[in-house]
Amino acid sequence: MSQTLSAAPQSLETLDTEYQLFSLGQFSFSRDNNFAIIRWPGGVHYMHVELFLSAMVRDLGWEFLYGWIFFDDIFGTINYYGKVEMFAGTHHPSYKKAGIAYHETFDTEQVLEVFQGIANDWINEGYDPLCVPRETGSAHGPKGRPARISLTRGFTQPAKRMLGLPGDAVARSSASGQPISESFKDLHLEFDRPQVKTEPGFEGSLHAVNVFDHIARSEVTWIPSTVSSTRNSLFCMSSEEHVLPVTHGNDRPEWFIQLTDEIHWTLQDKETGAPLGRVAMRPGDVCAMPADIRHKGFAPKRAMLLVLENSTPDLPPLYANGTLAPFPVEF
């Protein structure tokens, strides 16, 4: 089980700080006014505290998403769906060569508990790690009053069939206190409600929802909403701006469809981080992210993205052992 240590080691990194130190297995997490400090047997790693917190709260809210989440090129997690591997340097050639790479696997609930504890203790009032930099204050500085923000507000209930159906996930609306984001008002989209007309005898059998309206009301970025589900085929939409706070390593292919504005993606080899390419997506563009890469997004302004996910549970080992090719289509 995770534990909170009562006192930090007497070292330059943790002296004179009121922030709590956390440990999980052989990993420990501390912070000072500027950095998150991660230690493991034989190694220590410093991260800009805002980068660490922004990545961590998304990993926490996603419950580790699909596959690999790199907080940076050294530290991250791998989701084994019931278990989570925490790693430091195991996918960085220089750390492996130096013999200081380390990883350890925990029950999912253990990692969630520690990350939630860090979020509760390390996030001060005035800083919101779910917002883009222009919308929030700084995470730097000494410990202050705890932030009074919801870290789950962007992680909406996934649609079982389709957003807005009776008994299913509810679309965002002005009535629920979720106005259209100022960032989308320049699009001049008609955020009206679809009119559904059916032939006699088919009443209640047809449904439509304006998902542009739903996503335009999201106050956070890089957090997909599952808007429809057909068995294991999921349509996920999100609004994106600034930089994706993590680098995502796929354990299955994903399809991306750019709906508005543009997003630039950098692609790297999943195991080594070696650069593979760059994709610039504009409205109407479609691309597939293979199962053997990591990707990171950069959005110059608030944009809408549709992601098609296959949530079939036994896919990851089939891609990992080479039974399935890492890419979804050959030309």
UniProtKB/TrEMBL annotation:
Domain of life: Bacteria
InterPro entries according to UniProt: PnpCD_PnpD_N (IPR040908), RmlC-like_jellyroll (IPR014710), RmlC_Cupin_sf (IPR011051)
SUPFAM superfamilies for the chain: RmlC-like cupins
Domain Hydroquinone 1,2-dioxygenase large subunit N-terminal: 17-143
Name this polypeptide is given: Hydroquinone 1,2-dioxygenase large subunit N-terminal domain-containing protein
Organism: Pseudomonas salomonii
